[in-house]
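Give me the fold.
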Amino acid sequence: MTLPAALAEIVDDFEALGESDKVTLLLEFSSELPDLPDTLVTAAMEPVPECQSPVFLSVDAADPSSVQLFFSAPPEAPTTRGFASILHQGLNGASAAEILSVPADFYHDLGLDTAVSPLRLRGMAGMLARIKNQIAAQAGDPDPASQP
């Protein structure tokens, strides 16, 4: 599996823990999601309806060598917020090509399948898919699967 270095490190951190510690780490990530910059409002961001909680994201791929990601997720939804934070910490600043090469189901490697509902895990997959779609659209390619 090919993952950007920061995301691979996060996956390694989760793999090294027992199940209850994985949930604790996910909750720690939820508190680390950065606030939106003042120039970005939720109303201008893409909603992620695959998530059970109201999550919005924005992708700036103007510089394909360093894609910038922005997420809005409510503090009262720590699991979803944790997933957004993992994607932010693991992918923000990575190249468009690196992000597009992340397997859609990489989240299984976090080992949260038994601790988090499949519906919540699909929310993380939805976030990643929407990130890839925005990168492809900004590159002028409507199909992210056609990227290297």
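The radius of gyration is 14 Å.
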